[in-house]
């Protein structure tokens, strides 16, 4: 079915606020924390949702939405199946990019960096904090693999429940990753698409900033 041309006219004019060098923190992690907390305070749905982009060894990219579950000055953490497409791509190409976008605030944050697996004890702890249904799903779902239908998933979950009486432990193929930032970009929408873009980059292990043209 052909789309109507009306979608081409969809256009939101930005201009709620501005992003000035004089107002940002010199530490990008503190600046990130400020923006994320603001999104949470404004009750933005899934404020911790981020687009995660990975790339195969041959240069083919893929992207999906995942949830940020932990962050500090060491990096940004998420959890997944190591045998999923993103897990396989990260094994062969340990670099990724993430993007947070809060349209209600007209804000976006881009982060790029190297990726490493989290220690087993960190993944164990988080796995046990997850709801029971999520732990079961992580234990049985062959993530990213082709399956016959939805009934297949329902069956393997029923079979797993019938065979498991003990506490569900983290499967060896599931756990966390940390993205260690090498670059941040904070984006604030402005009038006429003359958006504010402030980039943080590393120079001799120190964070520097510069304004980018919109």
List the helices and strands and how they pair.
Blueprint: H1 28-41, E1 49-55, E2 61-67, E3 70-72, E4 75-81, H2 85-92, E5 95-102, E6 107-117, H3 120-129, H4 132-140, H5 150-163, E7 174-188, E8 196-203, E9 206-211
Antiparallel strand pairs: 1-2, 1-5, 3-4, 4-7, 5-6, 6-7, 7-8, 8-9
How would you describe this structure to a colleague?
The protein is α+β, with helices and mostly antiparallel strands. The chain has one domain: Pnp Oxidase, Chain A (Roll). It is built from five helices and nine strands. It has helices spanning 28-41, 85-92, 120-129, 132-140, 150-163, and strands at residues 49-55, 61-67, 70-72, 75-81, 95-102, 107-117, 174-188, 196-203, 206-211. Strands 1, 2, 3, 4, 5, 6, 7, 8 and 9 form a nine-stranded antiparallel β-sheet that branches. A hairpin with a 2-residue loop joins strand 8 (196-203) and strand 9 (206-211). The longest helix has 14 residues, at 28-41. The mean pLDDT is 94.
């Amino acid at each position: 079915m052909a789309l109507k041309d009306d979608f081409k006219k969809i256009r939101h004019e930005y201009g709620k606020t501005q992003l000035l060098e004089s107002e940002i923190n010199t530490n990008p992690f503190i600046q990130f924390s400020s923006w994320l907390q603001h999104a949470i305070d404004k009750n933005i749905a899934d404020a911790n949702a981020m687009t995660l982009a990975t790339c195969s060894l041959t240069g083919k990219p893929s992207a999906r939405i995942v949830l940020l579950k932990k962050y500090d000055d060491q990096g940004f953490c998420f959890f997944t199946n190591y045998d999923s497409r993103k897990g396989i791509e990260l094994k062969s190409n340990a670099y990724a990019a993430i993007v947070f976008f809060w349209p209600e605030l007209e804000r976006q944050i881009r982060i790029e960096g190297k990726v490493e697996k989290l220690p087993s004890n960190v993944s164990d702890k988080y796995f046990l904090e997850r709801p029971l249904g999520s732990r079961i799903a992580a234990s049985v779902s062959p993530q990213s693999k082709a399956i016959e239908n939805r009934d297949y998933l329902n069956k393997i979950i029923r079979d797993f429940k019938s065979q498991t009486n003990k506490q569900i432990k983290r499967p060896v193929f599931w756990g966390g990753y940390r993205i260690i930032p090498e670059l941040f970009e904070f984006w604030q929408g402005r009038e006429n698409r003359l958006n504010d873009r402030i980039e943080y980059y590393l120079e001799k292990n120190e964070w520097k900033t510069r304004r980018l043209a919109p």
